[in-house]
Amino acid sequence: MDRDFGVLPGAAGMRVYVTGVVDRLTERNRLPFDYSVASLRLVDFMVDGLRRGRPERGQIAGLLQGLGAYTGEVIVRRAGAGWVDFGAEQRELFGQPVGIRMPDERVWNPLGKVVNRFERGGPEESVQRLYLLLHGRRRKAAAPIDQTAVCGGRIG
33, 42 in Cβ contact below 8 A? Predict the structure, then answer.
């Protein structure tokens, strides 16, 4: 059931790794892994199908890893995130060596989200929902200081 997706690279190698994942997932069928937000629904659907078969997580760890990497790459491409290598504390917390950093500096774990979808199921673990919750959130920039308001009138 598992496919050999190889060793997960560091952040710098994730785009190439995900390209290989997509090639392997689509080599025998025409699954629409096109890096669109809509394709994340396919990830949810595939993980739900895996859950119904009730395999041990170890039997499908490579596939879950590949689907998680694909999920992260969609967020990178569509929401302006970037891949990051996790430090030791983050690796322990997330159980993964890499994740994504959003433009607002928050760090997320799409690989772990796919594992959670497999282990727990349910709409709260949807990777498509994760994207919809994350994309577009940006840290609010401080408003420029209006010198007339600060000084009570014009300067000069």
Answer: yes
Burial 111-137 (b: 16+ CB within 10 A, else e): bbbbbbbbeeeeeebbbbbbbeebbee
The pTM assigned to this predicted structure is 0.83
Consecutive H or E run containing 122:
none
- Measured in degrees and rounded to the nearest 5, phi and psi for residue 85 equal -85, 130
Q: Which two tokens stand for residue 95?
A: 């159980």
61 vs 67, 73, 107, CA distance in Å?
Answer: 10, 18, 23
b/e 50-63 (16+ beta carbons within 10 angstroms → b)? beeeeeeeeebebb
pLDDT digits (tens, 9 = 90+) for 40-68: 999 999 999 999 988 888 889 999 999 99
Domain ranges (residues) in the chain: 11-133
3-state secondary structure of 29: coil
